[in-house]
Amino acid sequence: MGKKELRDEKVIGRVEAVLQLVRKQSPLTLKQEKFCNNACVERFLRAKGNNVKKAAKHLRVCLSWRESIGTENLIADEFSAQIAEGVAYVSGHDEESRPVVIFRIKQDYQKFHSQKLFTRLLVFTLEVAIQTMPKNVEQFVLLFDASFFRSASAFLNLFLPALKTVANYYPGRLHKAFVLDSPSMFSYLWKGVRPFVELSTATMVVSSLDFEGSLEFNGFASYPRPRASSLRLDPSSIKSTAKIGSCSSSRFSFTVSHHFDSLKPWYLTLTDTSASKIGPTSPSPFGPALISPLNARSLSFASPAARTPRGNISMRKSLFPSTPLPQHSKATECIKVNHPRTPRPSFLQSPAMFFRRDCHVSNKTEKSLESFLPFLKFYTRPYDEMLYRSMMRPPLGGLISIVKRRHMSVSQRF
Hints:
Elements: H1 2-25, H2 30-35, H3 38-47, H4 52-69, H5 80-85, E1 88-93, E2 99-103, H6 109-112, H7 115-131, E3 140-145, H8 152-169, E4 174-180, H9 186-193, E5 203-206, H10 212-217, E6 246-248, E7 253-256, E8 266-268, H11 304-307, H12 313-319, H13 330-333, H14 351-354, H15 358-372, H16 376-380, H17 385-390, H18 398-413
Parallel strand pairs: 2-3, 3-4, 4-5
Antiparallel strand pairs: 1-2, 6-7, 7-8
């Protein structure tokens, strides 16, 4: 207990030293004094390695930035259109009471809104999330749904300023940040800029398609699917007018089984049902004619050697009487064809391939999927504007939220 008390006294002394340095530059207002509580100053100290001067300078920069943004004047009426569409909102709280913030921004958002307006929307949403935190909780979780973006650079231009804002003016607040269903080129761009991003260690890129099985087993199938569309075949979505059974064509026959398989609901038979067969038409002692890639393709693209049936030599002579074919000898039959082996990667050709370790990549993806699994229910949960507005407290709530909350309380009485 003695060591703990000494450590607490040291922390309190550092907090007081930071506040004294901040007050020397200019006196703090009442709202600034409320913002600079002990927990806030401790987060700035941890971000700067318990350096008092650096923490005081960072805190003063943050206070001036909040004054320029006008965080004290942000209300929900300014973002009524974004709140109605569910562009940015607090979806709920995880098992440790951390608020989960979801951003579902479309690609054309930057065409009609400036970067400053997006920063104000980001700050407003984060302030609402901080208001909903219990006393012992200091962090939040961010989910960025990038499925609306077709350009990776456009999403990166929106994502990087958001991370920079959180890192500079909300130190120690971010627990995890997830990017879902990003464009195909985003992973390559993210690898290039990741070493220069402060919160890169807390950021993970995942895909909602990797959780299709967990959506069904955990009972999330009733919720609407995420924005990203899947290219996998869903047999239940196809309305079939034909009966399940066998079907045959002039080239081959196939049969649909009664037990649906999402990968192979059909299988090909080994009998050729065509009227004009390629090859021997008489019954063979080896069974019916087998379907192979040679006799299943069009004859107009096949070579003369491919058009010849794999039967006896007399049949071949009947098809091509003017071209005598050489007789096969026993020596030629025993010759084995040695296929060339695949060359191993060389360091001189590709150093990246030489030092590549697939196990490390798979471990990283597995860790990211496991870390995102507790927040999957917030991503699939439908957006409820009334529930989100009920989380807002004055003055962030605005007039619309106050009227709606009062209307809800009156309706609940009856």
